[in-house]
Give the backbone structure.
Amino acid sequence: MPLNRRFRDVTRIGPVQIGTANDGRGREKHTAACTAPRCGFSADYDSRAAAELAARTHRCPIR
Ligand SMILES: [Zn+2]
């Protein structure tokens, strides 16, 4: 399910990838998305720190 947004500064923490993208209104959105199969976690955050924290503390519901 690729998103049609241009992410930059993509990093990876565990299975979770974090990318920064503009939301079209000149504001930045920081998205954390888990790449593990069948997990499906993804969320937008207002700050990079929040996204990284979510990535670090994320636990896949399915192992
Ligand atoms: Zn996960």
